[in-house]
Write a structure and sequence with these properties.
Structural class: alpha/beta
Radius of gyration: 21 Å
Distance between the termini: 33 Å
Strand content: 15-25%
CATH topology of the largest domain: Rossmann fold
CATH superfamily of the largest domain: NAD(P)-binding Rossmann-like Domain
Shape: elongated
Bound molecules: 3-phosphoglyceric acid
Length: 314
């Protein structure tokens, strides 16, 4: 009997766990739940005899892949898969997948929650500002970027987007204004919302030069990854531009400097909260479970994000 492990340091909502359990058990597999663990060693022990794992931001590195002797598939219930060692997964003949789009709306709503909170001075009783009529730049027009654009239009914002992988025509079709390059996006927009993945190219790519192009009362909104920020540059912009504010779904490494010196100009979630809604947990978790069943029963590998072993050797 195949064994499917849900390994989530940050647990799914109960309703999602039950939905996953049902899909797994209806397929005739064994369901196992492993939540809130405290070390990678514990995680490694839990994967020893399982065939499949569903994870969130949990780290699946070489050691975990090594420990999972029967492992055939890892599904990241979510979008970003920078937490999986893809090369090692291929070497171990393990298929890695994500569930793109399933938690995008939740992430987009959090971006607006943080924007409104900051625009209203953290609801401290003083007069704040509105989002209507302000410009917002969507940096990367993927699933989350599209939801952010749609919500921004509802707020009456002027929406711009830049994505080297999406044509200007496709952006225009959504009633969003495409710009020619990333600098233009930052120049034009008071708000910039980041939706780039963390890759070798994007890590530390958002720094002082780019942020300093932003107009007065600039607000950077990061529901992507903290790794895409050049934190030295971030501190410099905080220091040199008293009008600059930063909203981030997860604390930056230099949080203590920012919280000590720049009161009222930041908001950080204590844990990554973008996908923490029961709807997003259900969407992503159940999609992951279905993808595992489809993989075992019908060899379906849609949403595979690593290379298959034979692709590497050929
Ligand atoms: C994603 O990449 O899907 C989001 O960052 C959500 O991450 P989480 O599942 O750890 O909340």
């Amino acid at each position: 009997m195949k064994k499917v492990l849900v390994a989530t340091d940050k647990p799914f909502a109960k309703v999602a766990v039950e939905g996953i359990r049902q899909i797994v058990e209806q397929a005739g597999y064994e369901f196992r739940l492993f939540e809130k663990y405290t070390s990678q060693a514990e995680f490694a022990a839990a994967v020893e005899d399982v065939d499949a794992i569903i994870i969130r931001s949990d780290i699946v590195d070489k050691n975990i892949l090594e420990a999972g002797k029967n492992l055939k598939i890892v599904v990241r219930a979510g979008a970003g898969y920078d937490n999986i060692d893809l090369v090692s997964a291929t070497e171990h003949n393990v298929v890695a997948m994500n569930t793109p789009g399933q938690n995008s709306n939740a992430v987009a709503e959090l971006a607006f929650g943080m924007m409104v909170f900051m625009a209203r001075n953290s609801f401290n009783g003083t007069s704040g500002s509105e989002l209507r009529g302000k410009s917002i730049g969507i940096h990367a027009y993927g699933n989350v970027g599209k939801y952010v654009s749609a919500i921004a239009k509802g707020f009456g914002m002027d929406v711009y987007a830049f994505d080297p992988y999406v044509s200007a025509d496709d952006i225009l079709k959504d009633g969003v204004t495409p710009v020619n390059n990333v600098e233009e996006l930052y120049q034009k927009c008071q708000y910039v919302s980041l939706h780039i993945p963390a890759t070798a190219q994007t890590k530390k790519s958002i720094g002082f030069e780019l942020l300093n192009l932003m107009p007065k009362n600039a607000v950077l909104v990061n529901t992507a990854r903290k790794e895409v920020i050049d934190e030295e540059g971030l501190l410099k912009i905080f220091e040199e531009r008293p009008d600059f504010k930063y909203l981030s779904d997860i604390e930056p490494d230099n949080k203590s400097v920012i919280t000590e010196k720049y009161n009222g100009r930041y908001f950080f979630t204590p844990k990554k909260m973008g996908a923490q809604t029961s709807e997003a947990n259900v969407n992503a978790g159940l999609a992951a479970a279905r993808q595992i069943v489809d993989f075992f029963e019908s060899d379906i590998t849609t949403f595979q994000v690593n290379k298959a072993k034979n692709e590497v050797n050929s």
